[in-house]
Sequence to fold (338 residues):
Amino acid sequence: MSTETSGKRRRAWLVTAGVCALAVVAGVTVATNTNVLGPRDLCDGWFSGEDAGNSLDGFGRVTGSIDNLGGCTVEQSGWLPGTTDAKIRLSATSVTPAHPFSRSEWKASGAQNILPGGLPGAFDAYGNGWVALPSGCGPVGAAWAKGDHTILSVAVKQGNADPAELARLTRAAAFELAADHDCAPADSSTRNASADLIQASAPARSDPATVCGLDGFSLGAEAPAARPLREQTSGSRDDAWFCDLSLYQPATGLPRDDDREPFARLAVIRNPELLPAAKERRFDHAVCGGKETYFATEIADYVYSPDTPEEKAAATLVKASDVQNRFTAAARKALACD
Fold:
């Protein structure tokens, strides 16, 4: 064999080895930094790896695991520059029949993004929230010993998530969990109907004559020029609609911190899956446009945000006992109730 032939073969072998090495490195890079070669379904088939990745900001390999409590943890990771570490956890939780309207602890309000339809839910601006399984499911999953109904909660543990996509993911998982227990909605389109997540409005000063956008709903004993009320709304009046009321402290002219919890949470409930909870709380009821409707109110025990008589006088608001009556009357009129 000539020296020239031997050299050519050696170079060819080196090229082949180099190509193979690059292929291995590329394969490892793809496998550990993207979801191309990742698992197709996660968390016992609750959702796909692709859908889970879509709900998380950035990119990376997405994996999922079921823990001994029945919850599912989804993680996104990678070692390449630009990959993003993120983690969310979904878990079945039992709740009382009044959920999400438990006394003094509403889990849906004007400050949250509302998920309407057959599997309703509520999510904050970061994607943390819940989706209710159908009432016919009863307690399922890890929640069996704690309550009467089940919700699937999701919490963002690390990184950032897309709230709308995470709502879509959680609703799909809730549908699969219900299907596993033979209590899924008959209409399978419910599984993927979560693109209609309704965003909460930004907090805004209330119009004294149309508080929460309801004509005739006024809480001023005399409509105050300073407009101290601040409102935030979310949802749909055809399904479930919410309004949170707080006091805009600078408008009172008093040196108080204006960052306070709402003094009133109001809601119009028409979603069939939420009606049992509203009925449990014995909220005012009517039939409006042929639909069962409840008018829910939760008024803080301290009447309004103001703590002192001077603050209350500056706000010139009606007494707390009138809030429910005025809200219900205005809502009944707006919905043309019987």
User: Anything to note?
Assistant: The chain has six helices and 15 strands. Confidence is low (pLDDT under 50) at residues 17-39, 302-306. The longest helix spans residues 3-33.
